[in-house]
Specification:
Strand order of the largest sheet: 2-1-4-5-6-7
Distance between the termini: 33 Å
CATH architecture of one domain: 3-Layer(aba) Sandwich
Number of strands: 15
CATH superfamily of one domain: P-loop containing nucleotide triphosphate hydrolases
Helix content: 55-70%
Shape: elongated
CATH topology of one domain: Rossmann fold
Radius of gyration: 47 Å
Largest sheet: 6 strands, antiparallel
Structural class: alpha/beta
């Protein structure tokens, strides 16, 4: 419930701090006095678009703040989910609009995104303005009314989850069908590429090994000559290093008995001699192994040419990438060869999902059919006191293509008398009749949806005084039902029914024109309603009529 509204520097309002109360309240004022400004300020709190032009001229920013009592409503979950401090007795929503055009939103002094403010606002306040009567021409709105009265939220959530799953399965089927179609067009080419790469019998690391082997074979004579030269330098009979080291060892041992250090040096040369013999033996072996083989070189070069051709053809950097490409082609061929089985499996899953959707849609339909009959009965009961004694109201339900809301299409059919056939309400109802139908719907919905605050913005437009009184009675009954109902009205018959009466008016100040709002006393209410009845010249008769409307003697 809205407890308090604070507005600073918003269009023509420089300062407003107004308390609000439970039950039915009315707001009156001359055309252009600023009633729509107050409503626009509340709209900002509900997440509507902000505009720097809304700031009062000469000011840097405007602020709109509202305090709500949520103690009768279970809303703690929203605050816990969004990590916002929860105070059931005083929930504060604030919106600030800067001259730069930027705006900021706060819930209990916590900065929040505008989407979050809107989400909370939709659960706190429902504003019904004249343009909302156009909703009677929208099937989604009419279906939503049926769902609200049916109380089928759980079943609708279950259906929507199943429908989303069905859509996903259908998407997968369509995607696979498209993939199969593309693969079939390329199947021969894919198979040719696969066979070519598989026929090459590539091995991991083969390219590097072949390149090394090719280098060896192409330089074999040069390598063998160098090895022979090195071997001869070590093992040559006359000038070989081995013979020279052996001679040096013998000379040192000959003097070892008379020169102590010669023995140690001879031992070191012995160690070198052993290592040189081993090297000489290895060189001899390598010389024997190295042999120029033109046929082997040709085979190696041909193999490398094949690999290089494949690398260029398949745009790969090395043979490892060629093997990866081969694996990809194998997978594509497996997909092509097994696609029928995979498609059949996916289609079976999609069929199962569709069957579940149809079953849940049927459950929804039954609940909605029951709700439709209830709405028909209740709407007739509500419209008869509103000056429609012969009203006909029917909820037509037809089957439509499955969508996220089910398979039902709803249309509200209406006739103000028994002699005229039922037609869609938006097509045949007059402006006044449409207003009464919407009020009856809102009154019915309010019993199922526990909105803390409902605001009617001149819903009585096009309605006579007598019918206006009946509409006011319905709004007062809604307010008596434990909720807050506020009506912006131009009819004195409705204004007189409010438990609290607010007046919006303009006042000329030193700073220019300002809109003001005040909570009227009993005496002030008499004068306001008398003026609504007779105009600016308030007669004694008008005052008497005003008192009569207010139930005063």
């Amino acid at each position: 419930m809205l407890k308090r509204l604070i507005i600073k520097n918003f269009t023509l309002i420089d300062q407003l701090d107004m308390p609000f109360h439970e039950g039915f309240s009315v707001i009156t004022g001359e055309t252009g006095a600023g009633k729509s400004i107050v409503l626009g300020a509340i709209g900002l709190l509900l997440g509507q678009r902000a505009d720097s032009k809304q700031i009062k001229q000469g000011k840097e920013k405007c602020v709109v703040e509202a305090h709500f009592d949520l103690s009768k409503y279970s809303m703690e979950g929203f605050f816990n989910e969004n990590d916002i401090e929860y105070d059931a007795g005083d929930c504060i929503i604030r919106r600030e609009v800067m001259a730069s055009g930027k705006s900021r939103a706060f819930i209990n002094d916590t900065p929040v995104q505008l989407s979050m403010l809107k989400e909370l606002g939709e659960t706190l306040v429902d504003i019904h303005s004249q343009h909302q009567n156009l909703l009677l021409n929208k099937h989604d709105f009419q279906l939503n009314v049926v769902d609200i009265i049916a109380g089928d939220e759980t079943q609708l959530d279950d259906y929507r989850a199943a429908f989303a799953d069905y859509q996903e399965k259908e998407r997968q089927v369509a995607e696979l069908e498209e993939e199969i179609k593309r693969n079939q067009l390329q199947a021969d080419f894919i198979r040719f590429q696969h066979d070519e790469l598989e026929g090459a019998q590539l091995a991991a690391g083969e390219q590097e090994e072949l390149e090394r082997q090719g280098q060896l074979l192409s330089h074999s004579e040069e390598i063998k000559s160098a090895l022979y030269e090195a071997s001869n330098a070590l093992s040559g009979e006359t000038s070989g290093a081995l013979e020279n080291v052996r001679t040096a060892c013998n000379a040192l041992r000959h003097i070892a008995s008379v020169y102590d250090k010669a023995s140690e040096t001879a031992e070191r040369l012995d160690s070198c001699l052993i290592e040189l013999k081993d090297i000489a033996s290895e060189l001899e072996t390598q010389v024997e192994r190295i042999d120029f083989d033109p046929q082997e070189l040709e085979r190696t070069e041909q193999r490398l040419d094949l690999i290089y051709t494949l690398l260029k053809k398949y745009d790969c950097a090395d043979d490892a990438q060629l093997l990866q490409r081969l694996d990809q082609l194998k997978q594509q061929l497996d997909n092509i060869d097994n696609s029928d089985d995979r498609l059949a499996e996916l289609r079976a899953l999609a069929a199962e999902s569709k069957a579940r959707c149809e079953k849940l849609a049927a459950t929804l339909h039954k609940l909605r059919e029951k709700s439709a009959r209830k709405i028909e009965q209740e709407m007739k009961q509500r419209l008869v006191p509103l000056g429609m004694p012969n009203v006909q109201f029917s909820v037509s339900m037809s089957e439509t293509t499955p969508n996220r809301n089910g398979t039902d299409q709803v249309a509200f059919l209406f006739s103000a008398n028994t002699s005229t056939p039922l037609r869609p309400v938006a097509q045949v109802a007059s402006g006044g009749e449409t207003a009464r139908v919407m009020l009856a719907l809102k009154a019915m919905i309010s019993g199922a949806v526990k909105l803390p605050t409902i605001i009617f913005d001149e819903i009585d437009t096009g309605v006579s005084g007598k019918m206006g009184e009946q509409m006011g009675t319905i709004m007062r009954q809604m307010g008596d039902g434990g909720r807050q109902v506020i009506s912006i009205t131009h009819l004195p018959q409705i204004a007189a029914l409010g438990a609290h009466h607010y007046k919006v008016y303009k006042e000329e100040t030193a700073d220019g024109t300002s809109s003001r709002m005040e909570l009227l006393s009993d005496e002030s209410r008499i004068a306001e309603i008398a003026q609504m009845l007779s105009g600016s010249d308030i007669s004694e008769a008008a005052i008497g009529n005003a008192k009569a409307l207010l139930g005063m003697k």
